[in-house]
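re: ur question from earlier - yeah i can do the single chain one, its not a big deal. heres the input i used so u can compare w yours
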Amino acid sequence: MKNRAETIILLDCGWEDIQTFARLLRRSHMYCLVMPSTVSRERLLQEQPAGLIVCRGEAGSPALPAQFERLELPVLQLSLTAQADLEELSDRALDFCRQDCACSASWRMDIFLQEALADIRRKVGKETVVLGLSGGVDSSVTAALLHKAIGAQLICVFVNNGLLRKNEVEQVQELFGSHFAMRLHYVDASKRFLEQLKGVADPEAKRKIIGKEFIEVFSQAALESKATFLGQGTIYPDIIESIALDGNPEAVIKSHHNVGGLPENLPFKLIEPIARLFKDEVRELGALLGLPAELLDRHPFPGPSLGVRHLGAIEPQTLEMLRQADAIVVEELLTSGWYHKTWQALTVFLPVRAVGIKAGKRAYEYVVAIRAVNSIDALTAQVTRLPWELLERMSRRIIDEVQGISRVVYDTTPKPPGSIEWE
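and the output i got, formated as tokens:
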């Protein structure tokens, strides 16, 4: 959904900051896509690019992979060194796009919106789309976009997977079912999800189980609604982080539930209208669609919900500890005014015990970690320096109010090297 003659491919040959670089180009209205150096010539040419920028890291990777030799496209080679400045490199890239590739650099979100609406209507026709709605920013913007395009042909399925935040079920049903008047089908599948996750500690296995169960729940809903399409709120970082950039499956950062969890025999045609947008672009699109600021400004929340914020095997009792602790953190952030000064905050349950003193007695109970970061597009993140008094208040309330938690820690790891979510 863009002028294909305006597309620039960024070929990743070991450039750690390539996603940040891509965002710099897009903010200058130059549409670009990141592809691994192992991508086939045929797949790259499917995008009908206007030019190719080879992004090499300090390791001294080949200037141009063999499969792209004699490619009839303008090619720019950039190297990221310790002395390189991303802003300067983006200026060089923009000059290349305008002068060598004859690009106008006119990609804007209002144009994307009109093209997306037309593309959805063309693809869907008179068929029905079923969309998994979580109430998060990505799925909410997808719902608003699809609803504007096809109206009552959209059926939103809100699945209670047993891993949602406190009061999430009531809030989502009120906002979308009542306020936006969308066709909303609520499915309580909490027992089903938790049964499948019982005893599973590996984070990748949990993500894929959750993705698989979502698809099966949607399949059942689609059979009832006779839907042809499955809509998903996949965004571009989901795709990039699920790709083994160097051709090695072990290089995948993490499998996203709506990327890595899809079966080969999917009984729907997929429609992912925001799959090539970064997070900040999704929020910009949501504003154009008229979604309220309190929704768009909501902190990002993972599709697998608390399932990937509960380390180790999930038990109902420890999951409830996490849910209560998370609610306290969010409440304190809102009360203090720090919620909207923080891009994302989360609470993580750690399956380890620590000695403490509660009610004057020895306690040997669990630990939770609080994490707060600031970011633009989730590709990099800096730790938010929350006031010490606020952290103390969160910690005291969690220990006093949540039975089973005796210790609270604060995560000070930036991204990179750490991911924003712990799993």
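Residues 109-296 form a domain with the Rossmann fold fold (CATH 3.40.50.620). not sure if urs matches, ping me
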